[in-house]
Specification:
globular, homodimer, 18 helices, Farnesyl Diphosphate Synthase, 0% strand, mainly alpha
């Protein structure tokens, strides 16, 4: 294993062909005779991102010796569900619209974004019902429910500085780790023509691997939203504080801060009419204890996830999954 | 058959028990351990409405002699998909937010409404993947795509007074009639444990019946949005003009109006800052030719739909489906 942070491209190299098939299937699913829809789905490409969730279906499918002809389609369904959630994340609150009038025109019309996300969900479910086993449909319909519940809970917990870490991780897990868990479970246990999983025990172990890796991924995301460089991260940073989301680096810092610092953090999050909340938070509050703590927690999750890989036969692919944990922890994007 | 407009309650009387089972299943699906979600789904009841789409699965299931133990679940999936679209219809555009600031607080937070709709979709798909046949999942995933495409096309055609009637009906059909068509098709052709339809020919005939009935339903809805009494209709009327939706009564009137009337209609739809557009349209423009034409078109569709019922064996239920056309045309709500 190399020292330093592994390159994602290197880790995905063994499944390049599978990933290409996955991307082709996504492109076909997002085509539509309606020109209005075609114009929209063409723009969806901007959300493509790392496609880690789909890649995990394929990596674990290969590493477990369980890869089938339909794994690329399962991976496509997983990525499309993720894509739909990203499109819906773009919906602005009435409150946020009022607060950020300037940025509204940079975003899509809310109604169109809702319908486009619904379209992508529908295409994902449609593809999943065309598969020869119902395992993917069942696991992913339930996972979609969990994603929504996680997002709803996060939304109702805005500006909540009294949350326990366990609650925060439960929410972050539901909204992010659950799809990683489903991807890894299906990679190990999906089999064509059979509704039952190929290997229940391995499926469960890989589900746990995915959950821990996905939660670590989210925790690092939360750190990057505070410390990240916009150009490097490749998306707007500082949106959590703008949206009132209290993430672990903030929660941990807040819990250990003196009364004056607490008051200042609350103000930066909540005072009406404040602009540049993210910059204020970064410049005025020393969040380094929370950032360090969050990194340590992510490292602990990755260590536990790596332990689960012992259930897979030794191979270069298994080593790659091990290194993927290093990418998740060390990534700057 | 009775003279006058049949009462919906009388027409649904033969399937009361089935409808109760359907409602119970919907209630179970919308439960969630998360208190945040439970609070929200409790409010979803306000969207319950006529449940005509679910009722059609059951009425046609019984009238065709094809009713199975799982038809109530299929009906529940159909109604939940409809419910999800209604929740998402509540999303406000950034533009509408700006125009109607006063009403924003009467509505839910946009983000929550998006997530709640996604949750309802996920529960619908989850229930459909638990059924012993995949026919419902397949038909309804594809129908959901059509609903979204219809809504997207409608959205991109706002303020378009040059549309052809055929285009308008294609859009109204996709966004409304397609779910009626799917409900009727599944009522006649869903069978437990078999992915193939029970009777392809009857399924196709009932699909056409549902399409025509659903399109007629939408056309009457478009008339009620102009002429209806808010208290009687049971929902806000005049929203089409506020949202820039050009419906058949307006399109037909516009196409035959003189230049001055056309200019006035355009102004009422489009002039910035105008308030009470619906009232202005009703009071200043004589839409009666368009309303009459739309009613005649709906009657033509219902007549054609009724002809398709000849494929069903004669029964009181078949007569009830015939009368349902009378309800759709004559309804004031």
């Amino acid at each position: 294993m190399s020292a330093g942070i592994p390159e994602l491209a290197d880790l995905l190299e063994p499944i390049q062909g599978d990933l290409e098939r996955m991307r082709d299937m996504i492109a076909v699913q997002l085509e539509d005779r309606s020109p209005a829809v075609g114009d929209l789905t063409a723009h969806v490409g901007r959300f493509r991102g790392k496609q880690l969730r789909g890649a995990l279906v394929l990596l674990i499918g290969r590493a477990s010796g369980n890869l089938s002809h339909e794994h690329a389609a399962v991976a496509a369904v997983v990525e499309m569900i993720h894509l739909a959630t990203l499109v819906h994340d773009d919906i602005l609150d009435a409150a946020v619209v009022r607060r950020r009038v300037a940025s509204v025109n940079q975003r899509w019309d809310n109604q169109i974004a809702v319908l486009l996300g619904d379209f992508v969900y529908a295409r994902a479910f449609s593809l999943s019902t065309d598969l020869s086993s119902r395992l993917a449909s069942r696991v992913l319909a339930d996972t979609t429910r969990r994603l929504c519940v996680g997002e709803i809970e996060q939304s109702t917990r805005r500006y909540d500085f009294e949350m326990r870490q366990e609650q925060l991780e439960g929410i972050a897990g539901a909204k992010t780790a659950s799809l990683y868990a489903a991807a890894c479970e299906l990679g190990a246990s999906y089999r064509m023509g059979q509704d039952e999983p190929a290997d229940v025990e391995l499926g469960r172990a890989m589900r746990e691997f995915g959950w821990e890796l996905g939660l670590a991924f989210q925790l690092i995301d939360d750190c990057l939203d505070i410390t990240g460089d916009e150009a490097e991260v490749g998306k707007t940073v500082g949106t959590d504080v703008e949206d009132g989301k209290v993430t672990l680096p903030v929660l941990h810092t807040f819990a250990r801060a003196d009364a004056a610092t607490r008051a200042r953090i609350r103000d930066i999050f909540m005072a009406p009419g404040l602009s540049g909340r993210a910059r204020l938070l970064r410049e005025e509050c020393d969040l380094s204890p929370g950032i360090e703590y969050t990194h340590a927690r992510a490292a602990e999750l990755v260590a536990s996830a790596r332990g689960r890989l012992a259930k897979l036969p030794p191979s270069a692919l298994r080593s790659g999954l091990f290194e993927l944990g290093g990418f998740v922890l060390g990534r700057k994007w």
